[in-house]
Amino acid sequence: MKRKKSRPFWKWIAVACISLFCVAPLLWGLKVSIAPQYDTSIIPRRLTGEHYRYIFSRPEFFQYLRNSVVVSLSTVAFALPLSLLGGYALARFNFPGKQFSFLFLVFPLLPLIAVLVPLVSFLNRLGLYNKLSALVVVNAVFNLPLTVWMLRNFIMEVPVEIEEAALVDGCSRIEALWKITMPLAIPGLVAATVFIFITTWNNYLYASALITKPSLRVLPQGILAFIGTWGTYWGGLTAAGIITLIPPLVLFLLFQRWFIAGLFGQMLK
């Protein structure tokens, strides 16, 4: 009996330790961003907004912000329709090779650095090097496998009889997808949208390999500008990191219910 009663206590201890491990860097970064530059205490003696004022006084920061917004929204607009069509095809049609669709879950596990060099060479030949469109294409392509599988799982939860009834009434397959399946698959679409936006917004590897012009840098690249040869401006670095964190965090908090439901392919009740 004692052993059974002690299990929930140890579970809560484990959850608390894991949560502290995940949240501690964020809290420390927030502390550094609102504390004076040379304040090394755990709890700041006074609060200051000097680091944020410095960030907002730099016009290049707004340029990086604009580039990140453009790339993230363009990637969503490009990848989401393709993910919907691909997920619908996997959920509704039988075709040769469908039994290998599980590979959609394998592709995201491949090391991206392994294909980075040939990818850069290929995009350079296409004339897309040092262009934001290259980031849009690359982020869309590498987000497609997981978002296609995500939408496939959710569309399979939509009763096929509803679509068949629409087809009998004279709807084409595209009309049935647009008028019947899409409204019922909104949580899955939201989940895919949030996933594409967040992964594109946070991606540094592709941007560092494909963009060298300072005017085309995105936020993950711009943050590293605070790490210089003669030292690191930790206050500005953490302030820029906190600002960069806000859009994906707000997006997730607003749509977390739909995101979780769509991620597991479950209908909202």
From TrEMBL:
Residues 65-255 form the ABC transmembrane type-1 domain. Keywords: Cell membrane, Membrane, Transmembrane, Transmembrane helix, Transport. The chain crosses the membrane at residues 12-30, 69-90, 102-120, 132-155, 176-198, 233-255. It is found in: Cell membrane. It holds the Pfam family BPD_transp_1. Coiled coil: none annotated. One of its GO terms (biological process) is transmembrane transport. GO terms for cellular component: plasma membrane. It is a multi-pass membrane protein. Belongs to the binding-protein-dependent transport system permease family. This is Carbohydrate ABC transporter permease.
